[in-house]
Design brief:
Mean pLDDT: 81
Radius of gyration: 16 Å
Number of helices: 6
Helix content: 40-55%
Largest sheet: 6 strands, antiparallel
CATH topology: Beta-Lactamase
Structural class: alpha+beta
Strand content: 15-25%
CATH architecture: 2-Layer Sandwich
Order of helices and strands: HEEEHEHEEHHH
C-alpha cells in the first residue's frame, strides 16, 4: 500500500493548505472537504482552527449549505452575513459547535469535475471580500485541488499511476507567484518524500 493511502499522510498534505489559507486570511477556521460521489457526501479531509479536533472524517450530504451549493455550481461564493442567506445550513454549523458569521467557499476543480470544496470561515481581513482576496483564495484552492486529486488518485490507483497529479502540482507551484511558491514548496517536498 502506498504511503499516500495512509490517512496520516493524506491529512498532512491537505492540512498544510488549510493552515496556509487560514493564516493568510486570519480566519477562525478553514476546511477542505472531498466529494464522495458513491455516497453523495462531502467528507472533511482537513480542518484548521475551529473544529480541527472533531471534524476530520465527518460526512455531510453533498447538497448541504453553501458548501453544497459551491460544489454543485462549481462556482465560488462569499457571504458576509450567513444569517441573511437561506442556503446557509445553520443546523449543521451548530452541530459542529461553531457557527460562523461569514463564509467563503471555493470548489476544488480538477479534470473538469468538482473534487470537493475549500471553506474559509470568519476571515479577519475585512467584512467584505474583494477581487484581489478572491484571486488569492482561488490560487490556494487550485493548489488544494491538485493535492486532493493526488490523494484521491493514490486511494484508487497503483503508486506509479498517480504521477500525473504530482506533475500537475509541480507545474502549479512553478507558475505561482513568489510568495505562494515559498509557502507551497514544503508541500511538494512532502509529496516527493512520501513517494520514495
Amino acid at each position: 500500500m502506498s504511503a499516500l493511502a495512509d490517512s496520516a499522510a493524506q491529512h498532512r498534505l491537505l492540512q498544510s493548505i488549510a493552515e496556509l489559507a487560514r493564516a493568510v486570511f486570519g480566519a477562525r477556521a478553514c476546511s477542505i472537504m472531498s466529494h464522495d460521489p458513491a455516497t453523495r457526501e462531502l467528507v472533511f479531509e482537513a480542518v484548521a482552527g475551529e473544529g480541527a479536533d472533531s471534524l476530520p472524517g465527518r460526512r455531510l450530504a453533498a447538497t448541504t449549505g453553501l458548501a453544497g451549493w459551491s460544489l454543485a455550481s462549481e462556482e465560488p461564493i462569499a457571504v458576509a452575513d450567513v444569517s441573511r442567506d437561506p442556503r446557509f445550513a445553520r443546523d449543521v454549523a451548530e452541530s459542529t459547535g461553531f457557527v460562523p458569521s461569514a463564509i467563503i467557499v471555493f470548489p476544488l476543480l480538477s479534470r473538469e469535475r468538482a473534487l470537493g470544496v475549500l471553506s474559509l470561515l470568519d476571515q479577519a481581513a475585512s467584512p467584505s471580500v474583494g477581487i484581489a482576496e478572491m484571486r488569492v483564495l482561488g490560487t490556494l484552492a487550485d493548489h488544494a485541488a491538485a493535492i486532493l486529486q493526488f490523494v484521491l488518485d493514490a486511494r484508487t490507483q497503483p503508486r506509479d499511476e498517480s504521477s500525473d497529479a504530482l506533475d500537475g502540482l509541480r507545474h502549479a507551484i512553478d507558475t505561482a507567484g513568489e510568495s505562494d511558491r515559498r509557502a507551497l514548496t514544503a508541500i511538494i517536498e512532502n509529496l516527493i518524500d512520501l513517494r520514495r
